[in-house]
Amino acid sequence: MAQEDIFKKLVAHCKEYGYVFQSSEVYDGLSAVYDYGQYGVELKNNIKKYWWDSMVLLHENVVGLDSAIFMHPTIWKASGHVDAFNDPLIDNKDSKKRYRADVLIEEQLAKIEEKINKEIGKAQKRFGDAFDEQQFRETNPRVLANQKKYEELHTRFAKALNDNDLQELKQIIVDQEIACPVSGTRNWTDVRQFNLMFATEMGSTSDGAMKVFLRPETAQGIFVNYLNVQKSGRMKIPFGIAQIGKAFRNEIVARQFIFRMREFEQMEMQFFVRPGTELDWFEKWKSIRMKWHQALGFGEENYRFHEHEKLAHYANAAVDVEYKFPFGFKEVEGIHSRTDFDLSQHEKYSGRKIRYFDPELNESYVPFVVETSIGVDRMFLQVISAAYCEEELEKDSRVVLKLPPVLAPVKLAVMPLVKKDGLPEKAREIIDKLKFDFNCQYDEKDSIGKRYRRQDAIGTPFCVTVDHQTTQDNTVTIRYRDSMEQERVAITELGKIIGGKVSMRNLFEKL
Ligand code: ATP
User: Fold this and answer.
1) Separation of CA 332 and ligand 1 centre (Å)
2) Is 212 in contact with 70 (CB distance < 8 Å)?
């Protein structure tokens, strides 16, 4: 099945099984805003816990923070967001659809890359074990031609971005003959800059109201609290501050479900270091974060680092962690070396000293910062796209969410085989014992087969069935979601079996 069709099915599945709903759906929806349903919120909370604990629990020198969404408007002037938090937009005059010019060009690059990969894939099949990819890349004329095309376009694109040359971005789109996916035409407007921040007014009187912004990133809340945390926590450099919270961006193009939203959540950690050591720390955090992703077990080949074409105004190094979504490799997380830009700007605009006295060097300085920044919702989409699986079985088929048990919203379903003979009461007894440790669900409706399918669809890793034998010897069958194997075990063993699989410790030990 085409990857696009799988993605459509995944979106429908998220709605049908209470993971993600379109916001304000009864009023025909609000574009690029989503609500999380009964299972979605659990998965989201588990992702957040995995991130939070891996930062704050496992690193002695990383502490948490929860800063407000509203902040003094000068913060956004100082950070550069008022003047430079823009995306280049372009409209197709026929379809009236709006696009990000940089994304159109990135997609063109991805297409060329895909052609190269297809060629390699074909050759791999033809030559089997004898295939030498490097040699093929260096000698095959079609691959070489496409590689040249890729490099030329990439260089031209990076230069246009770095020079902020909007005319050149348009010219690239024209020269590459990029067409609007909706109208199919190349009838484009000029490229314009578009600021992504939402603004509102604070205050009760119209003349005294102050224009405030909804934060487009949580990081600034950390920067302006740097001194508070450092002093009150007597923190010594290097140390980090982690925060999870909502961010808002008036995205020009908000398609692809929860990949790009106007209201979303970020998990950000700013790590304050001695000037001159930031690039070493940048490398360290790159590796820590990649391990965090790969510990989930979705296949190392599905992740890669992507260097930025253009460094943000505050950065001296930046890389994205990309995951292979059904619509291609895309960013899940950004790791940035933000220099001393933000703290210095806040010093300048606030008139306060924001420094660290380093007792080892016996001097004060503005710390440098390495940031790790990941979207909760994008991570959610990554997890659910990796977990979604359609399986053909001997007699029928099933849709199963192969979520890592640690992240699964419901850990176990307890099912009486029939609704009589004391079996429901026995099932309830089991839940009453296990509910303190695990999110349990009771299910007695429909045949056992149907109940298993329902639990597969929401990703429950364990189903426990209570039958007549249970009333005699206190044993139950436990059925494993992925293998569908069943085992007879004592009720007293359940806590241990399930606990061993769903504990966050399993992931933390891999980090
Ligand atoms: P993009 O290039 O995709 O617009 P970005 O480089 O602007 O993203 P950052 O500012 O680095 O993104 O934000 C850090 C992380 O926050 C991203 O890696 C992503 O996971 C998440 N994120 C950013 N914008 C959105 C959004 N509109 N919707 C959902 N998640 C987002």
Assistant:
1) 8
2) yes
The residue extents of the domains of the chain are: 37-69+197-385, 86-195, 400-508
Ligand 1 atom nearest to 262, measured from its CA: 27
Check the annotation: does 262 bind a ligand: yes
Does residue 321 contact residue 293 with C-beta atoms inside 8 Å? Answer: yes
Ligand 1, atom 16, lies closest to the CA of 375
Residue among 205, 286, 214, 209 nearest 33 (CA)? 214
Report, as ranges of residue numbers, the positions in the chain whose pLDDT lies below 50: none
Per-position DSSP letters for 239-251, written without gaps between them: EEEEEEEEEE---
d(CA 342, CA 348): 10
Ligand 1 centroid–CA 435 distance in Å is 36
CA of 375 to the centre of ligand 1 (A): 6
Going by alpha carbons, the residue nearest to atom 18 of ligand 1 is 333
Q: CA nearest 271: which of 375, 371, 373?
A: 371
Which residues does 53 contact at the CB level (< 8 Å), separation at least 6? 504, 508
Residue 395 pLDDT:
85
Name the residue of 99, 266, 292, 309 to mutate for ligand 1: max ligand atoms within 8 A of Cβ.
266
Using a 6 Å CB cutoff, which residues line ligand 1? Answer: 217, 249, 251, 260-261, 264, 266, 331-334, 373-375, 377-378
Q: Do 86-195 and 400-508 come out as alike in CATH topology?
A: no
288 is in an annotated binding site: no
Is 138 annotated in a binding site? The answer is: no
409 prior amide bond cis, ω within 30:
no
Q: Take atom 7 of ligand 1 and give the residue whose Cα is closest.
A: 334
Q: Which fold has domain 400-508?
A: Rossmann fold (3.40.50)
Output the CA 41–ligand 1 centroid distance in Å: 20
Sheet holding 328-339, edge to edge: 62-65, 239-248, 263-273, 368-375, 328-339, 317-325, 303-307
Is residue 377 marked as binding? Answer: yes
Report the nearest-CA residue for atom 8 of ligand 1: 331
For the segment 105-144, what is each residue's pLDDT rounded down to a tens digit?
A: 999 999 999 999 999 999 999 888 888 889 999 999 999 9
pLDDT per residue over 250-307, tens digit each? 998 777 899 999 999 999 999 999 999 999 999 999 999 999 999 999 999 999 999 9
Right CATH number for 86-195 from 3.40.50.2300, 3.30.40.230, 2.60.120.10, 3.40.50.10490? Answer: 3.30.40.230
Please give the distance of CA 363 from its chain centroid, rounded to a whole number: 39
290 Cα to the center of ligand 1, angstroms: 17
Its pTM stands at 0.89
Q: CB within 8 A of 170, min separation 6: which ones? A: 90, 101, 188, 190, 191
User: Into which CATH architecture does domain 37-69+197-385 fall?
Assistant: 2-Layer Sandwich (3.30)
Mutate to test the pocket of ligand 1, among 259, 260, 268, 377 (most ligand atoms within 8 A of CB): 260
pLDDT for residue 206: 66
